[in-house]
Specification:
There is one protein chain. The chain has 555 residues and is an all-alpha fold. The protein folds into two domains: 8-13 and 24-217 and 270-552, Up-down Bundle (Growth Hormone, Chain: A); 218-269. The protein is 72% helix and 3% strand. It is built from 21 helices and four strands. Helix 3 (63-88) packs parallel to helix 5, helix 4 (93-111) packs antiparallel against helix 8 (189-203) and helix 9 runs parallel beside helix 16. The longest helix has 37 residues, at 410-446. It is globular, with a radius of gyration of 24 Å. The two termini are 46 Å apart. 57% of the residues are buried.
Length: 555
């Protein structure tokens, strides 16, 4: 039985007499709190990326724990995104955004007091649930504030904020860890979140729509969570906790399949489905979702495992690891800003997405060739290529989908792309983590003779380091003696580089999906204007613009 509750949705206030400059200032003022909220959500994830090896080692975690500290937040974000997107089509978006901020603050503060991998993973789950709300809602509100043509310019701002958070997060995390301890990494986002809460209250002005009754798809939410969780649990633990071909694999994949089928059945019958399946009848939505999966794998996989590569394969400290990943984020920052401005100026988006997909393929393929002694200049080049690919594609895929759907579906359509991007990233990180764990184990076994000789050369310190390696916890490579460190770095470098091979075929699929996207020009009316038009007497349901409008024909 669906839960039925009263609803009051929100849309931007109309300002019919304002000129372009006044409109620009008003939009920037309204976006201030949203941008800060996006920054908070991103920084909470990236600030711990460089210090995760230290964190997991300190609380007694294994490689599997390392993977789950990351994937727990990504998984909950993926599950929460379509839920928040649907709620955005039903309830007051400003209030929802503020609720997400408050929940995120509480989860982040709790994570700072973790003393076990289990508690930290639990806190990360709640960080993802509320952080996903901030990401999804900021994109939905932005779609109401401006037209698709204008959106390219402001999407660049969102991309820039994400890039700054991603660039500054690892660096700040490393500095905080080295200076004050890793617990402050979780607390640093709290004051920013509180400031975002105040700014949203002061700057974001939304006007109420006509209230209606909302049917919450509770069963759809549960089935989606079950299907997604079972798949990710299987990817993470297969090959270590149980064989890839085993009864456990059979019931987990079988359960996921049953949950997915039931989810489709529920969505087809529910009056307010979590993911309206008719949206996927639009080729633009389907292809953009497929492309987003690969982008998510590249984004999350590279940020997580490049930090691990720098520390476990090159012996860097958390601070140095943050500095060493700057080329990745610099490529992201510069490209997202420039591409957004070009799209707004010319209205053409497809060449930038195609170029970004090609750059993503090249970058991920080159990252799969890394060794512990690869010249760092080449590593920087490989990271920059991945950053350029992400900056050209990530936010603009959301823009393309928003341009293709009806205004009443902006929330759920935007969140669908973000959901599959997060799902792809979560599955990718899990698969890469499983590959790293398996390959490290195999590599250590193959190098057993070299390890024994290295440990014997350490004299009295040998038994202590042998016990550390046998404990299963992530090694503190930077503190290891030279004979042992070289072996461990080589094993981890080979394992992490092989994990990047997973991203290459997905990047190719992303390119193919983008090539087949309909090259429809961007509309020039905001979500509010389109909503007003569609609700006018005698009007027919429309997409973002009418399909037969000359302005919307192929560019």
């Amino acid at each position: 039985m669906p839960v039925v509750v009263p609803q009051t949705a929100s849309v931007p206030v109309v300002h019919p007499t304002e000129d372009a400059q006044q409109r620009h200032r008003r939009i920037l003022r309204s976006l201030t709190g949203l941008l800060l909220g996006m920054f908070v959500s991103m920084i909470a994830n990236t600030v711990v990326s460089t210090s995760l090896p230290v964190i997991v080692h300190d609380i007694g975690g294994t490689q599997a724990s390392y993977t789950w500290v990351v994937t727990a937040m990504l998984l909950s974000t993926a599950i929460a995104t379509p839920i928040w997107g649907k709620l955005a089509d039903l309830f007051d978006r400003k209030l929802l955004f503020q609720i997400a901020i408050v929940g995120f603050v509480l989860a982040s503060a709790s994570a700072g007091f973790s003393h076990s991998p289990e508690f930290l993973i639990c806190c990360r789950v709640f960080q993802g649930l509320f952080g996903g709300g901030m990401i999804a809602l900021s994109q939905v509100i932005m779609a109401d504030l401006m037209s698709p043509r204008e959106r390219g310019r402001y999407m660049g701002l969102f991309g820039a904020v994400m890039a700054v958070a991603t660039v500054g997060g690892p660096l700040a995390g490393g500095l905080i860890t080295d200076a004050f301890g890793w617990r402050w990494n979780f607390l640093v986002s709290v004051p920013f979140a509180l400031i975002a809460l105040v700014m949203v209250q002061r700057t974001l002005r939304l006007a109420p729509m006509q209230p209606r009754r909302a049917h919450i798809d509770v069963l759809g939410i549960l089935l989606l969570a079950v299907a997604t969780s079972l798949v990710l649990l299987w990817i993470t633990n297969a090959g270590t906790e149980y064989d890839w071909l085993s009864p456990t694999t059979a019931w987990m994949l079988g359960g996921a399949l049953v949950a997915a089928v039931l989810f489709v059945v529920v969505e087809r019958r529910h009056p307010e489905p979590l993911l309206p399946l008719h949206l996927f009848a639009d080729r633009t939505v389907t292809l953009a979702v497929i492309a987003s999966i690969a982008v998510g794998v590249a984004m999350f996989g590279s940020s997580v495992y490049l930090a691990q590569y720098m520390q476990l394969a090159r012996g860097a400290t958390p601070t140095h690891a943050g500095l060493m990943t700057i080329p990745l984020m610099a490529g992201f920052l510069i490209t997202s800003t420039l591409v957004g401005r070009r799209i707004t100026k010319h209205g053409s988006w497809k060449p930038y997405l195609v170029g970004g997909a090609v750059s993503l393929i090249a970058g991920t393929a080159l990252l799969s060739t890394l060794h512990y002694d690869t010249p760092f200049a080449l590593v920087c080049l490989y990271m920059a290529l991945v950053g350029v690919g992400m900056g050209s594609t990530m936010q603009n895929l959301v823009l393309v989908v928003q341009n293709a759907v009806a205004p009443q579906h902006l929330g759920v359509a935007s969140s669908a792309v973000t959901f599959f991007r997060s799902l792809g990233g979560t599955a990718g990180v899990s698969a890469m983590g499983a590959a790293v764990a398996t390959t490290v184990g195999t590599g250590m076994t193959e190098r057993a003779g070299d390890l024994r000789r290295a440990l014997a050369s350490l004299g009295a310190d040998g038994p202590r380091w042998a016990e550390s390696l046998q404990s299963g916890t992530l090694p503190a490579v930077a503190a290891m003696p030279e004979p042992l460190r070289v072996i461990v770095e080589d094993v981890y470098a080979q394992s992490i580089s092989q994990a990047f091979l997973i991203t290459v075929p997905l990047a190719v699929v992303s390119l193919l999906a983008i090539l087949f996207l309909p090259n429809v020009s961007l509309g020039q009316r905001s979500g509010e204007e389109l909503r007003a038009e569609s609700s006018a007497p005698g009007s027919a349901p429309t997409g973002t613009e009418r399909r037969d409008d000359p302005e919307r024909r192929h560019a």
